[in-house]
Amino acid sequence: MTAVSGEAAPPLLNSGLYDVSFDGQPLIVPSVGGINPNVRVGDGAFDFWADHIEPAVSVRHPDDRINAGLNVMACIGNEAVVISGDAKGATGRVTGKHGGIEHVMVDFTPEIMRKMAIGDKIQIWGCGLGMRLLDAPEIKIFNADPDFVEAWDPQLRDGKLHVRVAKLIPAAVMGSGLGRATVVRGDYDIQTFDDATAERYGLRDLRLGDIVAIVDADHSYGRIYRTGAISVGVVVHGRSFVAGHGPGVTSLLTSSAGNIEAAVDSSANLAQILRLR
User: Fold this and answer.
1) Of 45, 163, 231, 237, which has fewest CB within 10 angstroms of its CB?
2) Contact, 173 vs 203, CB < 8 A?
3) What domains, with CATH codes, occur in the chain?
4) What CA–CA distance (Å, rounded) separates 71 from 45?
């Protein structure tokens, strides 16, 4: 466990002003960053007229090098503490990491968020980086606090790790974020622009904080398509109107040999697992 820190990041427009949607429409909508008291894990990823909206509080350090450490060492479920401002002493939990903008998202109650200001300093007790599953060495684990894993309660049976997920996602729809050489920070996006695929897999019912299994995806050393592999992650930000983008997923587990068995369970969401709401 180690302390890493940042501050409540200001809201930013995704591309400076206008975004052009996948179907050619110019849009100005809320986007990344900020303190969002009415956007939290458990809410629908498509509930908001916004692009890449980040739940609750977005955290970033103004020094890029220090921010890289924050993004790598913070893990899903880590405790976060407000260390300045009117909400000083209040606690929350890390719920995601967003690549590109390099934010860490932290859930606090709306009452706490109403006391917070942009620039308030937030310390996270980073724990989970380097964790391994000793009884299942082929399965790699990333970005996960040990207490969160215990609450999620995956079970090893007959050489396979059995996990609860809210949705099964085909790797063919995964978009922005492919090609990174590591998955210990950031995310990659679920494209939802094909109506037939979105309907078949219930993609537009995704919620912020949903744990999802991505079928035929290997995250061992980056994010790639691999037949027979399976990866598991958590939905960390909302919908997008921009081509190649959509709700983002931060990696939790991967097996290049397919040794993860995912069972669909609608309660597999951070709001329930971490008892945030």
Assistant:
1) 163
2) yes
3) 2-126 (2.40.10.170), 140-273 (2.102.30.10)
4) 22
